[in-house]
Amino acid sequence: MVAGADRGRVRAGRRRQRAAPDGRGGRRLRPGRAQRHPGRSRRTPRPADRARDRRRARRPRPPRRARRACGPPTSRHRPTGPGAAMTTTTHPQPETQIECEGLVRIYKRKGVEVVALQGLDLHVRRGELVAIVGASGSGKSTLLNILSGLDSPSAGRALVAGHDLLGMGRSERRHYRLRTCGFVWQRATDNLVPYLDVAQNVDLPQRLAGSHRGERATRTALLLDLLGIADQAGERPADLTGSQAQRLAIAVALANEPQVLFCDEPTGDLDSAESHEVYTALQQVNEAHGTTVVVVTHDPAVAGEVRRTVAIRDGRTASETLRRRSGEGGADHHVLSEEFAVLDRVGRLQLPRDFVTALGMRHRVRVELAEDHIQIWPEEPPS
């Protein structure tokens, strides 16, 4: 028979054996657990522990991937400090900013398929100011909606600033429209918030992008001064003229420093004097910041405002007009304008409609290769 003192030593030895970390007598207990509950193991949790585990299981867990899958971090999360410049890697940007090859867009309306774009090709270099012109229904507005991320093409290839518009996901498309491209609608009411003043309208997209307050104020003042509306910073959009409202719309589109600016009929509701002011503002933005500007319009006056005009006909690129100055500058210089037909990658060529009508060309034509050019005749020479 074991004495009382010996019986206590035996029980203490058994408790130490159960709490030993070597696995022979039990599992390792947390610090202080053995002293509070000597005979209790982690294999049999207390009722309070079970309740705590149930409460933790009911709590919503944060997502594992907190960061977005695409797009650079906003300015709120950008690295700062002495070593911030060393951690940022810049890659050389391609020369071609916009590249479209064989672009097709098909709509279905009341069971009828409407082909808006029929294999359109377009190439725009970085820093260009380009105007796209065409009659109503030629496909120019459809092209602009695709390039700005508002619509998706049915087939073909479309790249804008390295973004593949055909395979773009929802998150990448949001980042593309917020930071890569800017858009200006025809009506000023579609571009601006009426109950905000001029400065607040320019500040709003920067706030949505997560920019700091100091950066927003500096950027807003710079854009308003560049576009000549700094004196109207405290006014509402309803108090501005048509030209001032469209220049404010341009400032809003440029708030997050986009690489490309798309304008859909920016002078459709303006007179000739106000239209010239808007095109002058676009030229200043293009020269000061190197922003690529694409303007879609049917206004014939745009021909004298840009250096390159692309004409679209029947959903394809028909011709291009290039303008350049003949002199070194001064008052005696004049502008030379030359029109080119566009040859796509498979060799298709759209002849000017005036040429086709003058020679009566229909269905088939005769083609002959000369030493340095190609000759085209109608199937039957005119009598």
Characterize the structure shown.
The chain has a 7-stranded mixed β-sheet with strand order 6-7-8-3-9-10-11, sandwiched between helices. The protein has a 4-stranded antiparallel β-sheet with strand order 2-1-4-5, with helices on one face. The chain has a two-stranded antiparallel sheet with strand order 12-13. 30% of the residues lie in helices and 23% in strands. It has 383 residues and is of the alpha/beta class. Strand 12 (365-369) and strand 13 form a beta hairpin. Keywords: ATP-binding, Nucleotide-binding, Transport.
CATH superfamily of the domain at 126-149 and 166-350: P-loop containing nucleotide triphosphate hydrolases
Please describe the biggest sheet, giving its number of strands, its sense, and whether it closes into a barrel: 7 strands, mixed
**Estimated helix fraction:** 25-40%
Strand content: 15-25%
Low-confidence stretches: 65-92
Count of separate DSSP helical elements: 11
CATH class of the domain at 126-149 and 166-350: Alpha Beta
State mean pLDDT (0 to 100 scale): 78
Q: What oligomeric state do these chains adopt?
A: single chain
What would you say the CATH architecture of the domain at 126-149 and 166-350 is? 3-Layer(aba) Sandwich
Radius of gyration: 34 Å
For the biggest β-sheet, the strand order reads: 6-7-8-3-9-10-11
Topology pattern, helix = H, strand = E: HHHHEEEHEEHEHHHEHEEEEHEE
Organism: Nocardioides euryhalodurans
Pfam families: ABC_tran
InterPro entries: AAA+_ATPase, ABC_transporter-like_ATP-bd, ABC_transpr_LolD-like, MacB-like_ATP-bd, P-loop_NTPase
Biased composition (Basic residues): 26-45, 53-68
